[in-house]
Amino acid sequence: MGGVDAGGNTMDRSLLIVDDSLGCRKVIRKTLRLAGIDDAHIREADNGQTALDAMRGCPASLVLLDINMPVMSGVEFVTELRRTDLGAHTHIIVISTESNRDRLAELRSLGVSDSLPKPFEPEQIRAFVVRIFGEAA
Amino acid sequence: MTHITPDQLFTAALDALERTAFLCAEPTETVLDAPVHAHVRYDGPSGGSVTVAADDACLVELASSLLGADPDSVAPEREGVDALKELANIMGGSVLRLLGSETQPFRLSVPVAACPAPCPRSVICRLLVEGLPMVVTWRPDAAAA
């Protein structure tokens, strides 16, 4: 399976896509499948609150996170996740329209691994996943 | 205050449509009937909004391309509006980058399916997406214009 988590431990390929746009979630999911991720290992959440609920049920190894969402934003999700230590070993990649350097730096200080601006190329997501999990195919 | 031109709006829309939905578009001078709106508001050093509008056929084309789904399985009022809101969100982010958001603290709101009030300072980009009508409008607030 390859890959280590944020704490240096061997990890599975469980992923959580967090985006309020159904279309965006579908595009990311399709990209992950093409990158060799088993569809059964991919979950979706439509805002930060439902993502937190999903993490409480079963933490994911990698979260692909939008920022600009209703109910609970991506920044609030990361803050809460780190506060509760739910995702201590979870990689988080932000995929959003956020471009402000200071805010992106703030997210990194909260433990976000990397960020990708929207609109994105599917290949960019594949590259992130391969870097974290290793080559799947 | 940075001014954004219709050409810049078109370039941003083309990029968003190509990357997210693999759709092609071309600019047009024709006044288009695009009755369904999604808009996103931003605030910061200056305020304003970005609106994307389309008709039902364009919504179906957009959503089915984004989802990789059969057009017959896509409802314009559900998946179509969701796709239009996401496009408004992406366009909002692109407009903020043009306004200098990398170094300035702009905030983008959550996109909503609604049409803001007309604004005399609007910058409008009309385009045909695979031959179907779409209108992108940038509305800077009065104080920022």
Report on this structure.
- The complex is a heterodimer of chains A (137) and B (145).
- By secondary structure, chain A is of the alpha/beta class.
- Chain A contains five helices and five strands; from the N terminus they run βαβαβαβαβα.
- Chain A has helices at 22-34, 48-57, 74-84, 101-109, 122-133, and strands spanning 15-18, 42-45, 62-65, 91-96, 114-117.
- In chain A, strands 2-1-3-4-5 form a five-stranded parallel beta sheet.
- In chain A, α4 links the parallel β4 and β5 (114-117).
- In chain A, α1 crosses α5 and α2 (48-57) runs parallel beside α3.
- By secondary structure, chain B is α+β, with helices and mostly antiparallel strands.
- Chain B has one domain: Chemotaxis protein chec (3-Layer(aba) Sandwich), CATH 3.40.1550.
- Chain B has a six-stranded antiparallel beta sheet with strand order 1-5-6-3-2-4.
- The longest helix of chain B is centred in the middle third of the chain and has 23 residues, at 76-98.
- Chain B is globular.
- Chain B starts with 5 loop residues before the first helix and ends in a 5-residue tail after the last strand.
- The model of chain B has no long low-confidence stretch (mean pLDDT 92).
- The chains are: A alpha/beta (137), B alpha+beta (145).
- The interface between A and B is medium-sized, with 24 and 32 residues.
